[in-house]
Amino acid sequence: MTEQDVYILGIESSCDETAAAVVKNGKEVLSNIISTQIPIHRKFGGVVPEIASRKHIERIMPVIDKALDDAKLTMAEITAVAVTYGPGLVGALLVGLSAGKALAFACDKPLIGVNHLEGHVFANFLSGEDLKPPFLALVVSGGHTSLLIVEDYNTFKLLGQTRDDAAGEAFDKIARFMGLPYPGGPEIEKLAASGNPKSIAFPKPLLPGTHDFSFSGLKSAVINYIHGLEQKGEPLNKADIAASFQETIVEVLVEKSQDALRATGLKQIVLAGGVSANKSLQKALAKGAEEVGASLIHPTAILCTDNAVMIATRGYYQYIHGERSAWNLNAIPALKLGE
Length: 339
Ligand code: KG4
Ligand code: ZN
What we know:
It contains 10 helices and 10 strands. The protein is an alpha/beta fold. The strands form 2 sheets. Strands 3-2-1-4-5 form a 5-stranded mixed sheet, with helices on both faces. It has a 5-stranded mixed sheet with strand order 8-7-6-9-10, sandwiched between helices. Strand 7 and strand 8 form a beta hairpin. Helix 6 packs across helix 8. The relative contact order is 0.19. The model has no long low-confidence stretch (mean pLDDT 97). Bound molecules: 5'-O-[(R)-(carboxyoxy)(hydroxy)phosphoryl]adenosine and zinc ion (ZN). 5'-O-[(R)-(carboxyoxy)(hydroxy)phosphoryl]adenosine binds next to helix 5 and helix 6.
């Protein structure tokens, strides 16, 4: 341990994962603790905000203690505390934020508020690949679908975003409609593996001339297709439906990313957010990027979905840039990228 080393304790509680992690110098993961509430929310078919807040309260301190223990560090040795303050569920965010603030204040450490979506993007700095701004980022999570330019470590420019449903939300809603458990993305991906992606032609929403997305029409088309078969008493081939739906979403994400790469001339694109765990998307986007002379980087599997390593990593870059948050930092449920 040298005086120049920067140890960031990251804390994340924006949705249904209570997480804490310690990252050294923005690149070495010393601990990564994730306590997931997925089995609890599965009974309800989605995240129940009040239950999420209560579970975060129960778990936040043990999760932070374990992250420090695994890193073999005490709070005295931590340089700064980085905590997600938005976007997300307000009650859930407040639990991690309050814990982070209290800990930082009591231990006389700087507090750094982190944007959850920027955290997802920064998970790519731990992928082991050589990544330097400027690059393009495709953020695809449960609540967001956006294309943004990462101009440097602290400047982000939004190119386009969804006008209605997020990609992950579309996966979750279709899965729920098909009777699959929450979260729907991984379930659709599993089912799609045994289906024919070319069997059903769903409409492909491209919104030409913009970098925006729209998935609600596709969602309705899938639901209408299923309703139609049910009304006629015809059998549903769920694997074919899952495969064709996934193929359509992936094609849209790839074509829009190619447009954005061409328009910006950027040579690197990163995937970020829970949907980045999808192997079909990773494969198709790698190929799509190559076709326009660019390359794809995506986070390692454990860092695709919500975690605190990404928050600590984002926090590291804010720390060395001199950013500090005030003690009255509040949760911002609808925090935008780059704010
Ligand atoms: O980033 P994340 O963990 O939480 C939010 O910040 O929203 O993303 C969760 C979303 C859910 O909609 C989930 O269904 C989706 O990511 N997801 C996937 C996969 N794994 C998670 N979607 C498609 N394929 C996957 N393998
Ligand atoms: Zn997320």
